[in-house]
Structure formats: C-alpha cells, structure tokens
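step=encode ok
step=design start
structure_in=
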C-alpha cells in the first residue's frame, strides 16, 4: 500500500487535558513601585497559556518580616493574593511564577530579604506535594496574616488544605498577636 508522502499523516487526537484548578498565589514586594509591580505580575499571570481567570485581592501594606521577626525599619511590603484558574500543572505554574519574578528583577541573595517581587504558590486545588522543589500547600502559609487576610478578601470560605478554614487560621493569628502585645 502506498501513501502520498506530500500529505502528513493525521495527528493523533489530543489526550484528556488537565481539569481547571484554582491556584492560590501570594504576592509581595517591598522595593521599587510595589503596587505597580504586583499589578503587572497579576496581568502577566493572566496572559499565561492555560490560565482562564485571575482574581487579585485588594493590596495590603504590611511590616517587613525578617528572620529575626517584624522589622518596622525595613521597607514595608505590599501584599496581595490571586486566585488563578488554570490547567497548568502545579510545577509548570511555579516555574512560570519564578520567571515572572526574574522579569521584575528578583534576586535571591538572602532568605526573607528585600525583594522587588515575591510570588509564592500557596495552594493548588486540593493537591499536596512534599517535594523540596514544590511544597504544597505552602508550609508557612497558615502562619502568615499577609497571605491569609488578602485570601479572605477573595473567598470568605477559603480552606487551606491540611490546615483548615482560612478565617479560623487568621483569627487565631490575630489573637496570638494581641496576646503578645497585651491587648
């Protein structure tokens, strides 16, 4: 049986695609035009392939947190959270978030140091991962009001997989902060 070599063979039908999932991405910046950087990063995420929606929380101004704790003398942060509806695999999304950080001049010299842009993949649907390259959910998200409060702005019923309701986690952190400050 001969085949016409000028006509390519038919392509196989595409395999089943990944279903949409909602990824929770935390944003932070304390150098440069912080607000504009966060808005540009959210717009860049919205243009990624297989991303169908990005809902960005209101921006929150927060005190810088260093390895030694809160530092009111360091440049303050602007933080936000986005709910990203995507079919990208979590590892691919994380790689793209790192590329967006680099496009905004992110340099990783010092852990918890000043930065032009920080993008953390906090959660990806109900998926979990203990791979050192991609821990899901983010191991410290339940301890960070600067993640939980903007997340609540978008979803009052949010749940951090493995930790519980975001509203309860945030309330517990607020109580412990008040207790430490004698309020």
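sequence_out=
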């Amino acid at each position: 049986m001969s085949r016409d070599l000028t006509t390519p063979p038919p392509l196989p039908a595409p395999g089943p695609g990944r279903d949409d999932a909602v990824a929770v991405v935390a944003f932070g910046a304390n150098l440069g035009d912080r607000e504009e950087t966060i808005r540009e990063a959210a717009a860049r995420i919205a243009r990624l392939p297989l991303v169908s929606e990005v809902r960005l929380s209101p921006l929150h101004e927060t005190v810088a947190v260093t390895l030694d704790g809160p530092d009111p003398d360091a440049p303050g942060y602007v933080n936000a959270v986005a709910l990203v509806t995507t079919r990208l695999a979590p590892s691919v999304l994380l790689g793209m978030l790192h590329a967006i950080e680099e496009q905004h001049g992110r340099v990783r010299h010092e852990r918890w140091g000043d930065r032009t842009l920080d993008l953390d993949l906090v959660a990806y649907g109900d998926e979990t991962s203990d791979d050192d390259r991609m821990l899901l959910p983010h191991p410290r998200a339940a301890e960070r009001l600067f993640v939980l409060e903007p997340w609540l702005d978008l979803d009052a019923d949010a749940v951090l997989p493995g930790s519980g309701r975001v509203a309860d986690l945030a309330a517990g952190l607020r109580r412990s902060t008040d207790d430490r400050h004698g309020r």
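step=design ok
step=annotate ok -> The longest helix spans residues 166-180.
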